[in-house]
Structures are given as structure tokens and as C-alpha cells.
Amino acid sequence: MTMQTIGRVSSSEATQLIEHVVKDAKASNKAIVVAVAGPEGELIAFLRMDGVNAASGIIAPNKAYTAARERKYTRELGQKMREKNTSPAYWGDDRITGFGGGVPIVQNEMVIGGIGVSGLSSVEDEELAEAAIKFVFS
Fold first, then answer.
1. Whole-model pTM above 0.85?
2. If we measure between CA atoms, which residue out of 9, 74, 21 comes closest to residue 47?
3. Is the predicted pLDDT of residue 4 greater than 90, yes or no?
4. What are the CB-based long-range contacts (under 8 Å, 24+) for 86-92?
């Protein structure tokens, strides 16, 4: 019997991801919420910048959760929901979201976590998440 090793985002890496997203948001004079989850979707780190809307504090962790658990961009899940007229309830999990801005963190072809950014447009949220992943894991 072989043991399966599951990689995961470390707390240090999660902190670096958050710091990078915040730095980029501040450079654009914008406020965001950013959350980082492990491969099972559980929260590792979270930060809500001053002045961001309250809903983003719920949405960002759900984006990180969804990206990690579903192992895909939340934008892709949202497209599937719209194309097939499928409710998020289909997944039987009320934390699943189709809002863009959730990105899986992949290392050695394995999802080791997810990052969710909320507060801007879905495209901007996703761009911030991708830039942070590239910065920390490249």
C-alpha cells in the first residue's frame, strides 16, 4: 500500500500571496478582499482592505474554496452554470460560487490550494490572483 502525499499552500506562501495582491491593489488605488485556501478548500489566510464592500468579505473566501475544491477557475464554473442554466445548488454546497476571481494554485500538476480575490471586476480580481501565484510560485 502506498501513501498519498498531498501538497498544500504553506502559511508563509499564503501570506506572500496576500501581500502581493494587496501591493498590486494599492498601486491601483483600489481596495479588495483576498483569501487563500488549502486543497480541501479550508481557509489558510484572509485579508480585507479598508474601504472594500462588505459582500466581498464573504465572496473572496468562497472563491478560494471553490477554486481549490473544484480544481478550476471559478469563472469557468460560472460559465458552465450560465450555459447549462445550472444553479450553484446543483453541487450541494452553498459555498460553491461562479463569480470570477477564484484561481486554483497548481504545483507539479497538483492543486495545492486556491486563491480568491473580490472587490473589483471579475477580470481584475482574477488578474490579481494570477499575478500573485506567478510571483510566489515561479
1. yes
2. 21
3. no
4. none
What are 86-102's pLDDT values in tens digits?
Answer: 887 778 889 999 999 99
Q: How confident is the model at residue 86, as a pLDDT?
A: 86
Q: Is 12 exposed, middle or buried (0-12, 13-18, 19+ CB in 10 A)?
A: exposed
What are the φ and ψ backbone dihedral angles of 110, each rounded to 5 degrees? -125, 140
Q: What is the CATH number of the domain that holds 48?
A: 3.30.450.150
Bridge partner residues of 105 (DSSP): 113
pLDDT confidence bin for 38, thresholds 50/70/90: very high
Q: Decide if 44 contacts 16 (C-beta within 8 A).
A: no
Local structure of 36: helix, strand or coil: strand
**97-to-59, 75, 79, 135, 136 alpha-carbon distances in Å:** 8, 9, 11, 25, 25
Burial class (CB in 10 A: 0-12, 13-18, 19+), 3: exposed
The domain in which residue 91 lies consists of: 11-137
Q: How many domains does the chain have?
A: 1
Please report the sign of the dihedral spanned by the C-alpha atoms of residue 14, residue 15, residue 18, residue 20. Answer: negative
